[in-house]
Amino acid sequence: MSRIANHPQREELRAELARNVVLAELSPDATLELEPHLMIVDCRKGDHLLLQGTQEMEQYFILEGVMKRVVTNPAGKEMILRFTREGDMETSYAAWRLHTPAPYSISAVTKARVAKLPLPQWVAFLERYPPIKSIFEHEVMRHMSDIMAHIITLHLLDAPGRVRRFQRKLPEFSDILPKKELASYLNLCAETLSRLSHRGKIQLP
Fold first, then answer.
1. Model pTM score
2. Strands 66-72 and 78-85
3. Quick one: pLDDT at residue 11?
């Protein structure tokens, strides 16, 4: 991990942060205030940013690669709740506000780079910048709405319907997700997903 100011690619990192859905509207002064709090983390495929059940939580801004939010039951069965890629964010803000453990894990689907800071520092920053807080809270609610829609989809749609909805709602992920991860997200076996892809339902990487 390293601070942006000490990173050899600091100008590229600053450009990536400026394109983030939450940070794009930051003023130069606010950017200067936030930057020293951010740590840059390079993740290998499978690395965890957040583990389900932990009490110490952070705010994440995705700079490169793809992350996933996943919940695991006591038997070890996983359910992928959402994918996140560069320009987006990840958080456990709701759990932190409720003083409950993190209800899911966040891990790298591909090689990834993330800027992070502790949630208490992020929330203190937001209190000083109400317009950014409003954008952030809107994104948190959008994530929750998307996850609920995904869970309903898994219960109500058949396999072709799930694939078609994915292609319609998340086309930007179609050519970058590993087949195993996509099949898990759609609650399909890899063979079923491959069969549907051969019928032209979806393009696989």
1. 0.91
2. antiparallel
3. 94
